[in-house]
C-alpha cells in the first residue's frame, strides 16, 4: 500500500536541506524518506508521483529551479495541512 502525502512534505524537505538540492537528489531523498510508491496530493491535484509533484510545485511557484538546484518558498505555501 502506498503512502499518501501532501505536496507540503516535499517543500518541507527542501526547506530542511542543509544545502540546495538538485532534482535528482530530491527524488532520491523523497523515495528514501517516503518510499518509492508514495503518492502525493495538493488542493489542486491528487494521486501524483514524486516527479509529478515536483513539476506541479514548480508550475505553482512553490519551488523554483535555478542552475539545476531547487529552492522552496515558504511564503508561497498555503496554510492548510
3D structure, described in words:
The chain has one domain: Arc Repressor Mutant, subunit A (Orthogonal Bundle). Helices cover 40% and strands 20% of the residues. It has 3 helices and 5 strands, in the order βαβαβαββ. A 3-stranded antiparallel sheet has the order 2-5-4. A two-stranded parallel ribbon has the order 1-3. The longest helix has 12 residues. The model has no long low-confidence stretch (mean pLDDT 90).
Give the rounded overall mean pLDDT: 90
* Strand segment count: 5
User: What is the radius of gyration computed over CA atoms, rounded to a whole number of angstroms?
Assistant: 12 Å
Q: What is the string of SSEs from the N terminus onward?
A: EHEHEHEE
The proportion of strand residues reads 15-25%
* pLDDT < 50 runs, ≥5 residues: none
Shape: globular
Helix content: 25-40%
